[in-house]
Write a structure and sequence with these properties.
Distance between the termini: 92 Å
GO molecular function: DNA binding; zinc ion binding
Order of helices and strands: EHEEE
Protein name: THAP-type domain-containing protein
Keywords: DNA-binding, Metal-binding, Zinc, Zinc-finger
Bound molecules: zinc ion
Number of strands: 4
Structural class: little secondary structure
Helix content: under 10%
InterPro entries: THAP_domain_protein, THAP_Znf
Pfam family, one: THAP
Length: about 110
């Protein structure tokens, strides 16, 4: 089974919902292009094999061209995958700090004289 190499992504080619997706191989022969690929998949020290793939979830719509003969979507030569975070952003909880600051307690003093 081929898994998507992007960090945090669990898409695999054998999965039912990925069956009609085209997975893309790394541009192993193009070291200039390979660098941003490796950077963008988010795995440190990762070395792609010839069988390593990235699922199309990480490629933007403008990364493709359509082959005029087969009508299949082809990846543009300069296209680079991006990390798509599927986990929802966590909203940091703001703790309630005590708004009543001491030291400013005005006490009416009506007992004097
Ligand atoms: Zn993926």
């Amino acid at each position: 089974m081929r898994y998507c190499c992007v960090i945090g992504c669990s898409n695999a080619k054998a999965k039912t919902d990925c069956r009609d997706k085209t997975f893309f191989k790394f541009p192993l022969k193009n070291s200039q292009l390979l660098q941003p690929w490796l950077k963008n998949i988010g795995r440190q020290g990762f070395r792609p094999f010839s069988s390593s793939v990235v699922c199309p979830d990480h490629l933007q719509e403008n990364s493709y061209t359509t082959c005029q003969f087969t009508k299949r979507r082809l990846l543009k030569r300069e296209a680079v995958p991006i990390i798509v975070s599927k986990t929802p952003k966590q909203i940091p909880k703001v703790g309630l700090t005590s708004a009543a600051a001491d030291g400013n307690n005005m006490q009416p003093d009506g007992t004097k004289q």
